[in-house]
Amino acid sequence: SLKMASDSPESLMTLCTDYCLRNLEGTLCYLLDNETLRLHPDIFLPSEICDKLVNEYVELVKTDSIFEPHESFFTLFSDPRSTRLARIHLREHIVQDQDLEAIRKQDLIELYLTNCEKLTAKSLQTLVSFSHTLISLSLFGCSNIFYEEENPGGCEDDCLVNPTRQVLVKDFTFEGFSRLRILNLGRLIEGVNVETLLRPLASLAALDLSGIQLNDVGFLTQWKDSLVSLVLYNMDLSEEHIQVIAQLRKLRHLDISRDHLSSYYKFKLTRRVLNLFVENLVNLTSLDISGHTMLENCTIPSMEEKMGQTSIEPAKSSIAPFRGLKRPLQFLGLFETSLCRLTHIPAYKVSGDKNEEQVLNAIEAYTEHRPEITSRAINLLFDIARIERCSQLLRALQLVITALKCHKDDKNIQVTGSAALFYLTNSEYRMEQSVKLRRQVIQVVLNGMESYQEVTVQRNCCLTLCNFSIPEELEFQYRRVNELLLNILNQSRQDESIQRIAVHLCNALVCQVDNDHKEAVGKMGFVMTMLKLIQKKLADKMCDQVMEFSWSALWNITDETPDNCEMFLNYSGMKLFLECLKEFPEKQELHRNMLGLLGNVAEVKELRPQLMTSQFISVFSNLLESKADGIEVSYNACGVLSHIMFDGLEAWGICEPHREEVVKRMWAAIQSWDINSRRNINYRSFEPILRLLPQGISPVSQHWATWALYNLVSVYPDKYCPLLIKEGGIPLLKDMIKMASARQETKEMAR
Can you give the residue ranges of the Protein zer-1 homolog-like C-terminal domain (predicted)? Predict the structure, then answer.
């Protein structure tokens, strides 16, 4: 399969940048007065490193919930003598006026400010300090940057009612920005005079006026000898606009696409308009007309259209006006137009909705600035992944991950993206994915769960996690995953399906993991959460998957983890056990899970006295005769009693039932089991069983332990023989054979 760049290991530069940003104090900085970050005086960093530090910092704040932003981060770059910045990309609420102000002495060449809604007109003034060096500037979506706060003079009372008013700045222009060539003013606020703003710029090469409504664009002709790229996405076009565009003969990239859902739109693209572009814009290599309605037929007759091999040669183009092109376009945007379904399209890359390639091109082209289009493209990808097979899997995954990271707060993208991820990570695609890629998926899924309490997103995210090997693949985010799942399960109103998946995931996460993991999760409130779920199901008299998974999860989390066993007892776990047994006498799976758990509790010497009541001992004794789930329930009941017997006669603090009577029932039970039983149990260690061998206090406990070992090593030799040897079981068995107190049949089995 195609190896993508994203699949190779991270560069040393990236790893160092990441490490320094996560440990600023320990690396580049020290803390002044316990609050302000300061750069060590002997540090000098070139722009290659500083740019990466700033750009990665913005990325981390945006996409990594654990990463803590620093108030004084941008002040580290205030002095160009020690830190140089050249090309930086800042986004959203992460950047404020004082951050730009902090770096105003830098000679910036490229400054991208995307959706920085906290920036005000103060930052316009700061921009002036970069005017002599800036070549490329984006103010896309900075909706408040042309507003300043005005204190109204006069009346005192009025000042209290309305202390600051937002006033539009009218007098700012790009005067003095002598080197500026590339400018993005996308989604500029209404009321700013674009023509006046831009007039001082001598030779613009690229201009983006997305989402701005201008009735007169005649002023663009002042750059007809320099403009190579023009973007007028979602601008209401008219014949006048078209005539102006046709004069910009140097254009290589023209984007007049629109979101066809956004508003009523009078303009229709005609064959004549496309002909005009082809004839006049002879350098065109990229054209985007997505979302447009074609007024009259631009296509060749359908008989001719279907003929021959698919071709990108202009001469064979199914779109008639494009037959006049000198060579195929590098890119042609036809998303949500009828033209994308034609056979012969004269372009190397086409965005559209006809097939996977076109849809991926659309996601790639529109993710950064057009989430409204991207979410619809991802929805199409979702259908492709669900119904057919994706042929460009790695590219698809990478693009969806990027979109989810880029638009963390966009509900539509989070819903469609999380749904697409579920289908793109399922088992049939497993082989093609690297560890790194799968980790990226997990990160964005957890981001989604964190930011969105919305049911669809939560469900999609939980379902996607089920496509991973648990716990192994989630180990690197272990705490965070558990916290998020417990958070879902602790919500008062719950969606049944999410509850079921979340409990299943919790159970899988505590299965076969180290004890320190289990202890940590126990401290997060895992035991309490599961008992609450059980309590609720019991009140509804429902024994469903949630009930069974919750007991199973408790069985797993108490395995060789005394702290969690103690929590189970402290939170009235035994009361729930008895109530469940009484309410659901026929539920075998449930009985097995509950007794497996009590087996774990009984292994803890300090907790056994709490099991020593007439009621509990009677229940365990009666369960010895249970045929539920093969021998499992009977076996576990016998295990619990074996540990209790091992504490000796003096620990038997009850009159009823008699100890001898229970011992007799235990012997009978063990003798009734088939020694070749296949098992529904998984031992990570034999230690709790082995400790019952070298003792003479309770021969029946010794016999239960020997039976358990004999059964496991004979039915599953590959798994359990090495474990028995590794944990020193052989000498213990040999010694037991020599013991006078051991029963003959126990010795036989041991031999």
Answer: 404-750
> Are 353 and 383 spatial neighbours (Cβ–Cβ below 8 Å)?
no
Q: Enumerate the H helices of 154-291 as residue ranges.
A: 156-161, 194-198, 239-247, 271-280
701 lies in some domain: yes
Query: How do residues 659-706 score in pLDDT, each as one tens digit?
Result: 999 999 999 999 999 999 998 788 889 999 999 999 999 999 999 999
**Encoded tokens for 410:** 């966009």
Residue 263 burial (CB count, 10 A): 9
Do residues 483 and 525 lie in contact, with contact meaning Cβ atoms separated by under 8 Å?
no
**pLDDT digits 0-9 by tens, 77-111:** 999 999 999 999 999 999 999 999 999 999 999 99
**pLDDT digits over 220-268, tens only?**
999 999 999 999 999 999 999 999 999 999 999 999 999 988 877 788 8
Q: Would 693 be classed as within a structural domain?
A: yes
What total number of domains does the chain contain? 2
Answer yes or no: is pLDDT of 155 > 60: no
Which of 186, 207, 234 is the C-terminal boundary of a domain?
Answer: 186
Q: What pTM value is reported for the model?
A: 0.87
Q: How many CB atoms lie within 10 A of CB 69?
A: 11
CA 110 remoteness from chain centre: 30
DSSP string, 3-37: PPGGGSPPPHHHHHHHHHHHTTTTTTEEEETTTEE
Could you say which of 186, 205, 235 is where a domain stops?
A: 186
Helix (H) or strand (E) holding 90: strand 87-91
User: What residues make up the domain containing 665?
Assistant: 619-750
Determine, yes or no, domain membership for 642: yes
C-alpha to C-alpha distance for 383 and 395, rounded to whole angstroms: 16
Residue 40 counted as domain residue: yes
Residue with tokens 């996601």: 363
In the block, tokens 């790194």 appear at 436
Give the Cα separation of 533 and 685 in Å (integer): 29
